[in-house]
Amino acid sequence: MKAFLECISCIIRQTIEILRRIVRSEKKRQRILAAVIGKMAKVDIHKMSPPEATKYAHDEIQRITGIKDLYKEPKKQNNREALQLYPYLKRLVRKARDPLLMAVRLAIAGNIIDYGALAEFDIKHTVKDVLGKKFAVSDYKRFRRDLKKTKLLLYIGDNAGEIVFDRVLIEELIKKIEVVFVVKSKPVLNDVLMEDAKMVGLDKVVKVIKSGSDFAGTIPSKGTKEFKELYKSAEMVISKGQGNFETLDQEKKNIYFLLKMKCPSLGRVTGFKAGDIILKRSR
Amino acid sequence: MKAFLECISCIIRQTIEILRRIVRSEKKRQRILAAVIGKMAKVDIHKMSPPEATKYAHDEIQRITGIKDLYKEPKKQNNREALQLYPYLKRLVRKARDPLLMAVRLAIAGNIIDYGALAEFDIKHTVKDVLGKKFAVSDYKRFRRDLKKTKLLLYIGDNAGEIVFDRVLIEELIKKIEVVFVVKSKPVLNDVLMEDAKMVGLDKVVKVIKSGSDFAGTIPSKGTKEFKELYKSAEMVISKGQGNFETLDQEKKNIYFLLKMKCPSLGRVTGFKAGDIILKRSR
Protein backbone atom coordinates (compact mmCIF):
# COMPACT_ATOMS: atom_id res chain seq x y z
CA MET A 1 0.00 0.00 0.00
CA LYS A 2 1.00 3.60 -0.48
CA ALA A 3 2.04 5.80 2.40
CA PHE A 4 -0.11 8.60 3.79
CA LEU A 5 0.72 12.21 4.55
CA GLU A 6 0.36 11.15 8.19
CA CYS A 7 3.34 8.84 7.80
CA ILE A 8 5.56 11.91 7.65
CA SER A 9 4.64 13.14 11.13
CA CYS A 10 4.99 9.58 12.42
CA ILE A 11 8.44 9.19 10.86
CA ILE A 12 9.56 12.48 12.36
CA ARG A 13 8.22 11.44 15.77
CA GLN A 14 10.15 8.17 15.47
CA THR A 15 13.28 10.05 14.41
CA ILE A 16 13.09 12.18 17.56
CA GLU A 17 12.71 9.03 19.68
CA ILE A 18 15.80 7.51 18.09
CA LEU A 19 17.82 10.71 18.46
CA ARG A 20 16.91 11.04 22.15
CA ARG A 21 18.24 7.52 22.64
CA ILE A 22 21.44 7.51 20.59
CA VAL A 23 22.58 11.15 20.49
CA ARG A 24 23.60 12.94 23.67
CA SER A 25 23.82 16.56 22.57
CA GLU A 26 20.53 18.36 22.06
CA LYS A 27 22.23 20.62 19.50
CA LYS A 28 23.35 17.60 17.47
CA ARG A 29 19.90 16.06 17.76
CA GLN A 30 18.40 19.21 16.35
CA ARG A 31 20.92 19.30 13.52
CA ILE A 32 20.19 15.70 12.51
CA LEU A 33 16.45 16.24 12.86
CA ALA A 34 16.67 19.25 10.56
CA ALA A 35 18.48 17.11 7.98
CA VAL A 36 15.84 14.37 8.24
CA ILE A 37 13.03 16.90 7.94
CA GLY A 38 14.71 18.46 4.94
CA LYS A 39 14.85 15.01 3.37
CA MET A 40 11.20 14.22 4.15
CA ALA A 41 10.09 17.53 2.63
CA LYS A 42 11.34 16.28 -0.72
CA VAL A 43 9.91 12.74 -0.57
CA ASP A 44 6.86 12.01 -2.70
CA ILE A 45 5.13 10.04 0.00
CA HIS A 46 2.38 8.69 -2.26
CA LYS A 47 4.81 6.84 -4.48
CA MET A 48 5.99 4.35 -1.88
CA SER A 49 4.88 2.19 1.02
CA PRO A 50 5.19 3.48 4.61
CA PRO A 51 8.28 1.35 5.38
CA GLU A 52 10.00 2.66 2.26
CA ALA A 53 9.26 6.24 3.31
CA THR A 54 10.67 5.49 6.76
CA LYS A 55 13.92 4.38 5.15
CA TYR A 56 14.69 7.91 4.00
CA ALA A 57 14.78 9.10 7.57
CA HIS A 58 16.79 6.15 8.83
CA ASP A 59 19.37 6.37 6.09
CA GLU A 60 19.89 10.01 6.95
CA ILE A 61 20.35 9.29 10.67
CA GLN A 62 22.73 6.44 9.90
CA ARG A 63 24.68 8.55 7.43
CA ILE A 64 25.19 11.43 9.86
CA THR A 65 25.80 9.45 13.06
CA GLY A 66 27.73 6.62 11.42
CA ILE A 67 25.68 4.19 13.52
CA LYS A 68 24.58 1.23 11.43
CA ASP A 69 22.12 -0.40 13.80
CA LEU A 70 20.04 2.24 15.57
CA TYR A 71 18.17 -0.29 17.74
CA LYS A 72 21.01 -2.68 18.55
CA GLU A 73 20.76 -2.49 22.33
CA PRO A 74 16.96 -2.41 22.63
CA LYS A 75 16.77 -5.46 20.36
CA LYS A 76 19.18 -7.48 22.47
CA GLN A 77 17.33 -6.49 25.60
CA ASN A 78 13.98 -7.47 24.12
CA ASN A 79 15.32 -10.84 23.05
CA ARG A 80 16.71 -11.43 26.52
CA GLU A 81 13.46 -10.46 28.20
CA ALA A 82 11.31 -12.51 25.86
CA LEU A 83 13.60 -15.52 26.25
CA GLN A 84 12.95 -15.50 29.99
CA LEU A 85 9.29 -15.89 29.14
CA TYR A 86 9.85 -18.80 26.77
CA PRO A 87 9.08 -21.58 29.31
CA TYR A 88 5.92 -19.72 30.33
CA LEU A 89 4.77 -19.42 26.71
CA LYS A 90 5.46 -23.11 26.06
CA ARG A 91 3.41 -24.01 29.11
CA LEU A 92 0.49 -21.90 27.86
CA VAL A 93 0.55 -23.77 24.54
CA ARG A 94 0.90 -27.18 26.18
CA LYS A 95 -2.08 -26.58 28.43
CA ALA A 96 -4.30 -25.05 25.75
CA ARG A 97 -7.34 -26.84 24.36
CA ASP A 98 -6.25 -25.78 20.90
CA PRO A 99 -2.46 -25.46 21.12
CA LEU A 100 -2.13 -24.12 17.56
CA LEU A 101 -4.63 -21.33 18.17
CA MET A 102 -2.89 -20.49 21.43
CA ALA A 103 0.45 -20.33 19.61
CA VAL A 104 -1.09 -18.06 16.94
CA ARG A 105 -2.47 -15.77 19.61
CA LEU A 106 0.89 -15.66 21.35
CA ALA A 107 2.62 -14.79 18.07
CA ILE A 108 0.28 -11.82 17.74
CA ALA A 109 0.82 -10.92 21.40
CA GLY A 110 4.52 -10.80 20.55
CA ASN A 111 3.77 -8.21 17.90
CA ILE A 112 2.43 -5.90 20.57
CA ILE A 113 5.66 -5.78 22.48
CA ASP A 114 7.51 -2.75 21.34
CA TYR A 115 11.22 -2.10 21.51
CA GLY A 116 11.16 -0.22 24.80
CA ALA A 117 12.25 -1.96 27.96
CA LEU A 118 9.52 -4.10 29.46
CA ALA A 119 9.52 -5.89 32.77
CA GLU A 120 8.58 -9.58 32.76
CA PHE A 121 5.45 -8.59 34.59
CA ASP A 122 4.45 -6.16 31.83
CA ILE A 123 5.02 -8.68 29.05
CA LYS A 124 2.95 -11.30 30.88
CA HIS A 125 0.28 -8.70 31.35
CA THR A 126 0.30 -7.85 27.63
CA VAL A 127 0.13 -11.51 26.76
CA LYS A 128 -2.88 -12.05 28.98
CA ASP A 129 -4.54 -8.98 27.51
CA VAL A 130 -4.20 -10.31 23.99
CA LEU A 131 -5.33 -13.79 24.96
CA GLY A 132 -8.53 -12.28 26.28
CA LYS A 133 -9.06 -9.97 23.31
CA LYS A 134 -11.34 -10.73 20.38
CA PHE A 135 -9.81 -10.79 16.90
CA ALA A 136 -11.00 -7.92 14.65
CA VAL A 137 -10.79 -10.50 11.90
CA SER A 138 -9.86 -14.15 12.22
CA ASP A 139 -9.31 -16.46 9.27
CA TYR A 140 -8.09 -19.14 11.67
CA LYS A 141 -10.34 -21.91 10.33
CA ARG A 142 -9.04 -21.42 6.83
CA PHE A 143 -5.51 -21.06 8.18
CA ARG A 144 -5.83 -24.42 9.84
CA ARG A 145 -7.28 -25.99 6.71
CA ASP A 146 -4.57 -24.51 4.48
CA LEU A 147 -1.86 -25.87 6.75
CA LYS A 148 -3.04 -29.38 5.92
CA LYS A 149 -2.34 -28.76 2.23
CA THR A 150 1.03 -27.18 2.93
CA LYS A 151 4.51 -28.65 2.76
CA LEU A 152 6.55 -25.47 3.02
CA LEU A 153 5.61 -22.32 4.91
CA LEU A 154 7.59 -19.10 4.72
CA TYR A 155 7.44 -17.21 8.02
CA ILE A 156 8.38 -13.55 7.62
CA GLY A 157 9.48 -12.21 10.98
CA ASP A 158 9.04 -8.72 12.34
CA ASN A 159 10.64 -7.56 15.57
CA ALA A 160 13.22 -8.61 18.11
CA GLY A 161 11.65 -9.94 21.31
CA GLU A 162 8.63 -10.93 19.26
CA ILE A 163 10.84 -13.51 17.57
CA VAL A 164 10.70 -15.66 20.73
CA PHE A 165 6.91 -15.75 20.39
CA ASP A 166 7.35 -16.63 16.71
CA ARG A 167 9.58 -19.52 17.75
CA VAL A 168 6.77 -20.89 19.91
CA LEU A 169 4.34 -20.85 16.97
CA ILE A 170 6.96 -22.25 14.62
CA GLU A 171 7.61 -25.16 16.99
CA GLU A 172 3.93 -26.03 16.68
CA LEU A 173 3.96 -25.69 12.90
CA ILE A 174 7.01 -27.88 12.30
CA LYS A 175 5.26 -30.82 13.90
CA LYS A 176 3.49 -31.12 10.53
CA ILE A 177 5.24 -29.03 7.90
CA GLU A 178 8.52 -27.42 6.93
CA VAL A 179 9.01 -23.78 7.94
CA VAL A 180 11.63 -21.30 6.79
CA PHE A 181 12.03 -18.13 8.82
CA VAL A 182 12.83 -14.83 7.12
CA VAL A 183 14.83 -11.99 8.64
CA LYS A 184 15.78 -8.58 7.26
CA SER A 185 19.09 -8.28 5.45
CA LYS A 186 20.17 -5.04 7.09
CA PRO A 187 19.35 -3.26 10.35
CA VAL A 188 16.13 -1.26 10.30
CA LEU A 189 14.13 -0.25 13.35
CA ASN A 190 13.85 -3.18 15.76
CA ASP A 191 13.30 -5.67 12.93
CA VAL A 192 14.86 -9.11 13.30
CA LEU A 193 18.25 -9.86 11.77
CA MET A 194 20.14 -13.15 11.51
CA GLU A 195 21.82 -12.35 14.84
CA ASP A 196 18.41 -12.21 16.56
CA ALA A 197 17.42 -15.59 15.13
CA LYS A 198 20.67 -16.97 16.52
CA MET A 199 20.31 -15.23 19.86
CA VAL A 200 16.94 -16.87 20.49
CA GLY A 201 18.03 -20.22 19.02
CA LEU A 202 15.60 -20.14 16.12
CA ASP A 203 18.38 -21.13 13.72
CA LYS A 204 18.55 -24.47 15.54
CA VAL A 205 14.85 -25.06 14.98
CA VAL A 206 14.34 -24.07 11.33
CA LYS A 207 16.24 -22.71 8.39
CA VAL A 208 16.62 -18.92 8.55
CA ILE A 209 17.12 -16.80 5.45
CA LYS A 210 17.49 -13.12 4.67
CA SER A 211 14.73 -11.33 2.80
CA GLY A 212 16.92 -8.87 0.96
CA SER A 213 15.07 -6.01 2.62
CA ASP A 214 16.88 -3.17 4.30
CA PHE A 215 13.66 -1.44 5.28
CA ALA A 216 10.82 -2.32 7.65
CA GLY A 217 8.83 -4.30 5.12
CA THR A 218 9.21 -7.00 2.50
CA ILE A 219 8.92 -6.63 -1.28
CA PRO A 220 9.28 -10.10 -2.82
CA SER A 221 10.31 -8.83 -6.26
CA LYS A 222 13.23 -7.05 -4.62
CA GLY A 223 14.18 -10.08 -2.49
CA THR A 224 17.32 -12.21 -2.61
CA LYS A 225 17.38 -15.10 -5.08
CA GLU A 226 16.90 -17.55 -2.22
CA PHE A 227 13.96 -15.62 -0.83
CA LYS A 228 12.29 -15.34 -4.23
CA GLU A 229 12.59 -19.06 -4.86
CA LEU A 230 11.22 -20.06 -1.47
CA TYR A 231 8.49 -17.44 -1.72
CA LYS A 232 7.45 -18.99 -5.03
CA SER A 233 7.50 -22.60 -3.86
CA ALA A 234 5.94 -22.10 -0.41
CA GLU A 235 2.24 -22.94 -0.33
CA MET A 236 1.71 -20.58 2.59
CA VAL A 237 3.27 -17.44 3.99
CA ILE A 238 2.94 -15.97 7.46
CA SER A 239 3.63 -12.26 7.52
CA LYS A 240 4.18 -10.73 10.93
CA GLY A 241 3.53 -7.13 11.82
CA GLN A 242 2.41 -3.94 10.22
CA GLY A 243 5.47 -3.13 8.08
CA ASN A 244 5.26 -6.47 6.29
CA PHE A 245 1.51 -6.05 5.92
CA GLU A 246 1.97 -2.63 4.35
CA THR A 247 4.29 -4.02 1.70
CA LEU A 248 2.69 -7.43 1.08
CA ASP A 249 -1.00 -6.53 1.14
CA GLN A 250 -1.28 -6.41 -2.66
CA GLU A 251 0.52 -9.71 -3.27
CA LYS A 252 -1.22 -12.54 -5.08
CA LYS A 253 -0.12 -15.23 -2.70
CA ASN A 254 -1.58 -17.30 0.11
CA ILE A 255 -0.42 -15.00 2.90
CA TYR A 256 -1.70 -14.93 6.46
CA PHE A 257 -1.13 -11.61 8.16
CA LEU A 258 -0.66 -11.78 11.92
CA LEU A 259 -0.43 -8.40 13.53
CA LYS A 260 -1.63 -5.78 15.89
CA MET A 261 -2.70 -2.69 13.96
CA LYS A 262 -0.67 0.19 15.33
CA CYS A 263 -1.54 3.03 12.98
CA PRO A 264 -4.82 5.01 13.02
CA SER A 265 -4.36 6.21 9.42
CA LEU A 266 -4.29 2.67 8.04
CA GLY A 267 -7.97 2.41 8.88
CA ARG A 268 -8.64 4.57 5.84
CA VAL A 269 -7.67 1.71 3.52
CA THR A 270 -8.08 -1.38 5.68
CA GLY A 271 -11.12 -0.64 7.79
CA PHE A 272 -9.18 -1.74 10.87
CA LYS A 273 -8.67 0.40 13.92
CA ALA A 274 -5.46 1.00 15.83
CA GLY A 275 -5.25 -1.67 18.50
CA ASP A 276 -7.02 -4.34 16.44
CA ILE A 277 -5.75 -7.90 16.68
CA ILE A 278 -5.67 -9.45 13.23
CA LEU A 279 -5.30 -12.90 11.65
CA LYS A 280 -6.22 -12.20 8.06
CA ARG A 281 -5.72 -14.07 4.83
CA SER A 282 -4.65 -12.11 1.73
CA ARG A 283 -7.34 -11.48 -0.87
CA MET B 1 8.83 27.66 28.36
CA LYS B 2 10.91 26.62 25.39
CA ALA B 3 9.63 24.21 22.78
CA PHE B 4 10.85 20.62 22.44
CA LEU B 5 12.04 18.69 19.41
CA GLU B 6 8.79 16.75 19.83
CA CYS B 7 6.82 19.91 19.08
CA ILE B 8 7.94 19.62 15.47
CA SER B 9 6.29 16.24 14.88
CA CYS B 10 3.20 17.50 16.69
CA ILE B 11 3.04 20.64 14.54
CA ILE B 12 3.37 18.57 11.38
CA ARG B 13 0.65 16.21 12.56
CA GLN B 14 -1.59 19.21 13.22
CA THR B 15 -0.75 20.65 9.80
CA ILE B 16 -1.88 17.44 8.14
CA GLU B 17 -5.14 17.53 10.12
CA ILE B 18 -5.79 21.09 8.96
CA LEU B 19 -4.91 20.29 5.35
CA ARG B 20 -7.24 17.26 5.30
CA ARG B 21 -10.02 19.57 6.43
CA ILE B 22 -9.51 22.67 4.30
CA VAL B 23 -7.75 21.46 1.15
CA ARG B 24 -9.48 19.07 -1.24
CA SER B 25 -6.68 17.96 -3.53
CA GLU B 26 -4.20 15.48 -2.09
CA LYS B 27 -1.54 16.88 -4.43
CA LYS B 28 -2.07 20.37 -3.09
CA ARG B 29 -2.05 19.07 0.48
CA GLN B 30 1.29 17.46 -0.17
CA ARG B 31 2.69 20.64 -1.73
CA ILE B 32 1.65 22.75 1.26
CA LEU B 33 2.89 20.15 3.71
CA ALA B 34 6.28 20.13 1.97
CA ALA B 35 6.42 23.92 2.32
CA VAL B 36 5.54 23.71 6.03
CA ILE B 37 8.11 20.98 6.59
CA GLY B 38 10.73 23.01 4.78
CA LYS B 39 9.93 25.91 7.09
CA MET B 40 10.07 23.76 10.24
CA ALA B 41 13.46 22.36 9.21
CA LYS B 42 14.89 25.86 9.54
CA VAL B 43 13.24 26.83 12.83
CA ASP B 44 15.44 26.85 15.94
CA ILE B 45 12.83 25.20 18.10
CA HIS B 46 14.68 25.80 21.38
CA LYS B 47 14.55 29.56 21.02
CA MET B 48 10.77 29.91 21.32
CA SER B 49 7.70 28.60 23.11
CA PRO B 50 5.61 25.81 21.54
CA PRO B 51 2.82 28.19 20.42
CA GLU B 52 5.37 30.45 18.74
CA ALA B 53 6.83 27.46 16.88
CA THR B 54 3.34 26.46 15.77
CA LYS B 55 2.87 29.90 14.27
CA TYR B 56 5.51 29.20 11.60
CA ALA B 57 3.43 26.34 10.25
CA HIS B 58 0.15 28.23 10.42
CA ASP B 59 1.52 31.31 8.73
CA GLU B 60 2.75 29.13 5.89
CA ILE B 61 -0.63 27.40 5.45
CA GLN B 62 -2.43 30.75 5.57
CA ARG B 63 0.01 32.30 3.12
CA ILE B 64 -0.37 29.53 0.54
CA THR B 65 -4.11 28.90 0.87
CA GLY B 66 -5.09 32.52 1.43
CA ILE B 67 -7.40 31.32 4.22
CA LYS B 68 -7.11 33.61 7.23
CA ASP B 69 -9.04 31.56 9.78
CA LEU B 70 -8.22 27.86 9.43
CA TYR B 71 -10.70 26.79 12.14
CA LYS B 72 -13.57 29.14 11.36
CA GLU B 73 -16.26 26.49 10.89
CA PRO B 74 -15.21 24.12 13.70
CA LYS B 75 -15.13 27.05 16.09
CA LYS B 76 -18.66 28.14 15.23
CA GLN B 77 -19.87 24.59 15.55
CA ASN B 78 -18.21 24.15 18.94
CA ASN B 79 -19.74 27.38 20.21
CA ARG B 80 -23.16 26.27 19.01
CA GLU B 81 -22.83 22.85 20.64
CA ALA B 82 -21.51 24.21 23.91
CA LEU B 83 -24.26 26.85 24.01
CA GLN B 84 -26.86 24.10 23.96
CA LEU B 85 -25.25 22.77 27.12
CA TYR B 86 -25.27 26.14 28.87
CA PRO B 87 -28.53 25.57 30.84
CA TYR B 88 -27.22 22.15 31.93
CA LEU B 89 -23.92 23.64 33.13
CA LYS B 90 -25.75 26.39 35.02
CA ARG B 91 -27.90 23.78 36.71
CA LEU B 92 -24.81 21.81 37.80
CA VAL B 93 -23.36 24.94 39.40
CA ARG B 94 -26.64 25.90 41.06
CA LYS B 95 -27.05 22.48 42.62
CA ALA B 96 -23.43 22.10 43.73
CA ARG B 97 -22.40 22.22 47.37
CA ASP B 98 -19.53 24.49 46.37
CA PRO B 99 -20.76 26.32 43.27
CA LEU B 100 -17.41 28.07 42.68
CA LEU B 101 -15.49 24.80 42.74
CA MET B 102 -18.04 23.26 40.39
CA ALA B 103 -17.66 26.20 38.03
CA VAL B 104 -13.87 25.85 38.15
CA ARG B 105 -14.14 22.15 37.36
CA LEU B 106 -16.48 22.90 34.47
CA ALA B 107 -14.07 25.49 33.10
CA ILE B 108 -11.39 22.80 33.04
CA ALA B 109 -13.82 20.31 31.51
CA GLY B 110 -14.32 22.86 28.76
CA ASN B 111 -10.60 22.76 28.06
CA ILE B 112 -10.88 19.09 27.24
CA ILE B 113 -13.32 19.63 24.43
CA ASP B 114 -11.35 19.78 21.26
CA TYR B 115 -12.32 21.44 18.01
CA GLY B 116 -13.73 18.31 16.38
CA ALA B 117 -17.48 17.84 16.19
CA LEU B 118 -18.91 16.47 19.40
CA ALA B 119 -22.42 15.30 20.06
CA GLU B 120 -24.17 16.72 23.11
CA PHE B 121 -23.97 13.27 24.62
CA ASP B 122 -20.18 13.19 24.24
CA ILE B 123 -19.70 16.61 25.80
CA LYS B 124 -21.90 15.68 28.75
CA HIS B 125 -19.91 12.48 29.08
CA THR B 126 -16.62 14.42 29.07
CA VAL B 127 -17.98 16.82 31.64
CA LYS B 128 -18.99 14.00 33.95
CA ASP B 129 -15.59 12.38 33.49
CA VAL B 130 -13.79 15.53 34.58
CA LEU B 131 -16.13 16.09 37.50
CA GLY B 132 -15.22 12.65 38.78
CA LYS B 133 -11.50 13.04 38.16
CA LYS B 134 -8.98 14.01 40.81
CA PHE B 135 -6.86 17.13 40.19
CA ALA B 136 -3.17 16.37 39.59
CA VAL B 137 -2.62 19.60 41.47
CA SER B 138 -5.22 21.85 43.02
CA ASP B 139 -4.48 25.24 44.50
CA TYR B 140 -8.20 25.83 44.94
CA LYS B 141 -8.02 26.87 48.57
CA ARG B 142 -5.52 29.57 47.79
CA PHE B 143 -7.48 30.50 44.66
CA ARG B 144 -10.55 31.06 46.82
CA ARG B 145 -8.58 33.06 49.37
CA ASP B 146 -6.92 35.21 46.68
CA LEU B 147 -10.29 36.01 45.16
CA LYS B 148 -11.27 37.74 48.40
CA LYS B 149 -8.36 40.16 48.02
CA THR B 150 -9.08 40.79 44.36
CA LYS B 151 -10.91 43.60 42.66
CA LEU B 152 -9.99 42.91 39.06
CA LEU B 153 -9.32 39.52 37.51
CA LEU B 154 -8.01 39.04 33.98
CA TYR B 155 -9.39 35.87 32.43
CA ILE B 156 -7.32 34.72 29.44
CA GLY B 157 -9.47 32.47 27.27
CA ASP B 158 -8.38 29.54 25.20
CA ASN B 159 -10.71 27.76 22.77
CA ALA B 160 -14.06 28.16 21.11
CA GLY B 161 -16.72 25.95 22.69
CA GLU B 162 -14.74 26.06 25.90
CA ILE B 163 -15.64 29.75 26.11
CA VAL B 164 -19.20 28.80 27.11
CA PHE B 165 -17.76 26.93 30.09
CA ASP B 166 -15.62 29.99 30.86
CA ARG B 167 -18.77 32.09 30.83
CA VAL B 168 -20.26 29.86 33.53
CA LEU B 169 -17.23 30.35 35.77
CA ILE B 170 -17.08 34.06 35.01
CA GLU B 171 -20.74 34.44 36.02
CA GLU B 172 -19.80 33.04 39.42
CA LEU B 173 -16.75 35.28 39.72
CA ILE B 174 -18.52 38.53 38.87
CA LYS B 175 -20.81 38.08 41.84
CA LYS B 176 -17.88 39.41 43.86
CA ILE B 177 -15.25 40.95 41.60
CA GLU B 178 -14.69 42.57 38.22
CA VAL B 179 -13.57 40.28 35.40
CA VAL B 180 -12.14 41.16 32.00
CA PHE B 181 -12.02 38.42 29.39
CA VAL B 182 -9.11 38.21 26.95
CA VAL B 183 -9.31 36.87 23.40
CA LYS B 184 -6.64 36.48 20.73
CA SER B 185 -6.18 39.33 18.29
CA LYS B 186 -5.96 37.19 15.17
CA PRO B 187 -7.15 33.70 14.20
CA VAL B 188 -4.93 30.86 15.37
CA LEU B 189 -6.04 27.26 15.82
CA ASN B 190 -9.42 27.13 17.55
CA ASP B 191 -8.50 29.94 19.93
CA VAL B 192 -11.23 32.40 20.87
CA LEU B 193 -11.61 35.66 19.00
CA MET B 194 -13.86 38.64 19.68
CA GLU B 195 -16.48 37.05 17.43
CA ASP B 196 -16.59 33.97 19.68
CA ALA B 197 -17.11 36.10 22.77
CA LYS B 198 -19.99 37.78 20.96
CA MET B 199 -21.44 34.54 19.67
CA VAL B 200 -21.73 33.10 23.18
CA GLY B 201 -22.86 36.41 24.66
CA LEU B 202 -19.84 36.86 26.90
CA ASP B 203 -19.49 40.46 25.77
CA LYS B 204 -22.82 41.17 27.46
CA VAL B 205 -21.51 39.75 30.75
CA VAL B 206 -18.03 41.26 31.03
CA LYS B 207 -15.64 43.49 29.17
CA VAL B 208 -13.75 41.59 26.45
CA ILE B 209 -10.36 42.73 25.18
CA LYS B 210 -7.80 41.48 22.68
CA SER B 211 -4.47 40.17 23.92
CA GLY B 212 -2.41 41.29 20.97
CA SER B 213 -1.44 37.67 20.32
CA ASP B 214 -1.70 36.11 16.90
CA PHE B 215 -0.42 32.74 18.10
CA ALA B 216 -1.80 30.12 20.49
CA GLY B 217 -0.36 31.65 23.62
CA THR B 218 -0.01 34.97 25.42
CA ILE B 219 3.15 37.01 25.96
CA PRO B 220 2.25 40.02 28.11
CA SER B 221 5.24 42.12 27.03
CA LYS B 222 4.04 41.80 23.44
CA GLY B 223 0.42 42.57 24.30
CA THR B 224 -1.72 45.53 23.30
CA LYS B 225 -1.49 48.66 25.42
CA GLU B 226 -4.89 47.88 26.93
CA PHE B 227 -3.90 44.31 27.75
CA LYS B 228 -0.62 45.39 29.34
CA GLU B 229 -2.36 47.94 31.56
CA LEU B 230 -5.04 45.54 32.73
CA TYR B 231 -2.48 42.77 33.20
CA LYS B 232 -0.51 45.09 35.45
CA SER B 233 -3.45 46.30 37.51
CA ALA B 234 -5.27 42.94 37.88
CA GLU B 235 -4.59 41.26 41.21
CA MET B 236 -5.30 37.85 39.70
CA VAL B 237 -5.11 36.20 36.32
CA ILE B 238 -6.80 33.03 35.14
CA SER B 239 -4.98 31.41 32.25
CA LYS B 240 -6.89 28.75 30.38
CA GLY B 241 -5.31 25.90 28.44
CA GLN B 242 -1.92 24.62 27.52
CA GLY B 243 -0.84 27.25 25.00
CA ASN B 244 -1.31 30.06 27.52
CA PHE B 245 0.43 27.96 30.18
CA GLU B 246 3.40 27.40 27.88
CA THR B 247 3.86 31.13 27.38
CA LEU B 248 2.93 32.42 30.85
CA ASP B 249 4.60 29.83 33.08
CA GLN B 250 7.63 32.03 33.78
CA GLU B 251 5.66 35.18 34.59
CA LYS B 252 6.00 36.84 37.96
CA LYS B 253 2.30 37.38 38.48
CA ASN B 254 -0.51 35.86 40.49
CA ILE B 255 -1.71 33.53 37.75
CA TYR B 256 -3.95 30.52 38.16
CA PHE B 257 -3.55 28.00 35.37
CA LEU B 258 -6.64 25.97 34.58
CA LEU B 259 -6.03 23.27 32.02
CA LYS B 260 -5.94 19.71 30.93
CA MET B 261 -2.39 18.71 30.08
CA LYS B 262 -2.46 17.46 26.52
CA CYS B 263 1.21 16.93 25.72
CA PRO B 264 3.36 14.03 26.96
CA SER B 265 6.61 15.94 26.37
CA LEU B 266 5.64 18.74 28.76
CA GLY B 267 6.06 16.27 31.59
CA ARG B 268 9.81 16.69 31.19
CA VAL B 269 9.61 20.23 32.59
CA THR B 270 6.36 20.26 34.54
CA GLY B 271 6.18 16.81 36.08
CA PHE B 272 2.59 16.52 34.86
CA LYS B 273 1.34 13.73 32.65
CA ALA B 274 -0.82 14.01 29.56
CA GLY B 275 -4.42 13.84 30.73
CA ASP B 276 -3.79 15.56 34.05
CA ILE B 277 -6.38 18.02 35.28
CA ILE B 278 -4.69 21.07 36.72
CA LEU B 279 -5.57 24.10 38.84
CA LYS B 280 -2.17 25.51 39.63
CA ARG B 281 -0.93 28.83 40.90
CA SER B 282 2.18 30.35 39.30
CA ARG B 283 5.36 30.16 41.35
From TrEMBL, chains A, B:
Residues 5-276 form the Damage-control phosphatase ARMT1-like metal-binding domain. InterPro entries: ARMT-1-like_metal-bd_sf (IPR036075), ARMT1-like_metal-bd (IPR002791), PH1575-like (IPR014444). SUPFAM superfamilies: AF1104-like. Gene3D superfamilies: Uncharacterised protein PF01937, DUF89, domain 2, Uncharacterised protein PF01937, DUF89, domain 3. It holds the Pfam family ARMT1-like_dom. This is Damage-control phosphatase ARMT1-like metal-binding domain-containing protein. It comes from candidate division WOR-1 bacterium DG_54_3.
